[in-house]
Design a protein that fits this description.
mainly alpha, 4-stranded mixed beta sheet, 14 helices, 69% helix, disordered C terminus
Length: 429
């Protein structure tokens, strides 16, 4: 059984590396052609940014694979020997804390390099080291409290129910729903400030749009995103009475009123079409399949790994293999998401004007330095949003010979000298 899992994980790693290599080669070819949407300098910068991130992805895939091999052959046994305490629940929680901590420390250099090297070089990062440490401490505190409770309850279910995988799925799915409910009002404010949008024409126009589709929200808020990053975004967060409209302050600076309304019209399309609930249902289906599979792993597997299959080991194994299972379903979920995005674009163009949505999309691509082209494999597996050129085409706009803005860049950021660190921006916004 262990041999089969290693083979499957090896194939999974090879596919991810292969997709990244294809993406790098594709972008390096396309960036030498005539630019689209962006002036030549910006087009080259966007390409270099995508390539730089993708190179980190390749190294990260290899490190993930090595960590997987270490965990199944030695890591679980080592961690079990380190956690020798009385009480099954306490043992499970401490084991899982150790499992998460080791993986976090291994992944931390990639996160730091991405944020303070690549994002810094390409003009995105606004975060200081102090702010990063404070965010990390806040996240750790939340994880210790909330994660500890969740681990303990799940471990108790495993210890007391033969069909623990079913009740474990119910627990995790319920927690996911609660996170969606409380994220905008409880969790997000821990890291960012949310101020109500000032009274005026924009707020009145947004309120009118929401009333047209019957959306009742907790309010319209502006998030101080610029203190961490310069990229543009907006979203509707929450479920039920906690629903709220969130605008990044960076978005307000770059888009005019009509473009903002078109973008929000797109988001209202998701609300009207019930896309949030569709995504939750897809997530629930994936979790159910994952828990079913992991709930039927034979004890022989854990014997081959040299560990006793106590609750903590079973949960850690689920966490270790979940990316493998989710990767299988990623193309389908991405396809559904892209379909929903096209429908939301159509809705947004009706609500805010097609020309305004087109203008907003082109500004978002330029400001976020999103290279407008990607290899078909990357789109097939990872793109939850269609490529921007396809979105514009669906809106009836030919962007093949269009340039947004004037040439402002006189010197493009070079790729990192060691050429190894980066991950691809999987979504086209």
């Amino acid at each position: 059984m262990l041999k089969m899992i290693i083979i499957l994980y090896s194939i999974y790693t090879f596919l991810r590396v292969y997709i990244s290599v294809m993406q790098i080669g594709y972008i390096n070819q396309e960036k030498r052609k005539d630019p689209v949407l962006m002036a030549a300098g910006k087009y080259m910068v966007a390409a270099n940014y995508a390539v730089a991130k993708e190179k980190v992805a390749i190294i990260e895939h290899f490190v993930d694979y090595l960590m997987f091999i270490w965990w199944v052959f030695a890591g679980f046994a080592w961690l079990s020997s380190m956690v020798q305490v009385e009480g099954e629940l306490l043992q499970a929680v401490l084991f899982l804390f150790g499992f998460v901590a080791v993986n976090y420390m291994v992944g931390l250099p990639f996160e730091l390099y991405q944020k303070f090297k690549i994002d810094e070089d390409f003009g995105f990062n606004k975060m200081t080291v102090k702010m990063f440490i404070i965010d990390a401490l806040k996240s750790a505190a939340m994880f210790i409290v909330l994660g500890g409770i969740l681990f303990a309850v799940l471990a108790w279910i495993i210890a007391n129910y033969e069909m623990w995988w079913l009740w474990g799925f119910v627990l995790i799915f319920a927690v996911a729903l609660l996170v969606n409910v409380f994220y905008p009002t409880v969790i997000a404010p821990i890291f960012n400030k949310f101020n109500p949008l000032e009274e005026g024409d924009l707020k009145e126009a947004i309120t009118k749009l929401m009333e047209q589709v019957g959306l009742k929200s907790d309010g319209i808020f502006v998030m101080d995103a610029s203190k961490r990053d310069s990229r543009l975004n907006a979203y509707f967060g929450g479920l039920g009475k906690t629903k709220r409209v969130v605008l990044f302050d960076t978005l307000l600076e770059k888009l005019d009123k009509k473009e903002l309304l078109a973008v929000l019209g797109h988001e209202l399309g998701h609300f009207t079409h019930g896309d949030i609930w569709k995504n939750i249902a897809l997530m629930g289906g994936l979790l159910f399949i994952a828990f079913y599979l992991f709930g039927h792993l034979p004890d022989e597997l854990f014997t081959q790994m040299g560990v006793i299959p106590h609750a903590g080991v079973k949960i850690a194994m689920l966490m270790l293999l979940l990316p493998l299972v989710s990767f299988v379903f990623t193309p389908f979920m991405s396809y559904v998401s892209r379909h929903n995005e096209y429908a939301a674009d159509e809705f947004g163009s009706q609500m805010g004007g097609k020309e305004n949505l087109v203008s907003a999309l082109m500004k978002l691509v330029t400001e976020n330095k999103s290279f407008p082209k990607s290899h078909p494999l990357v789109i097939f597996f990872y793109y939850t949003h269609p490529p921007v050129l396809e979105r514009l085409k669906e809106l009836g706009f030919d962007a093949s010979n269009t340039i947004v803005g004037e040439e402002e860049i006189t010197e493009e950021p070079a790729l990192p000298s060691d050429g190894i660190f980066a991950f691809v921006d999987k979504e086209e916004k």
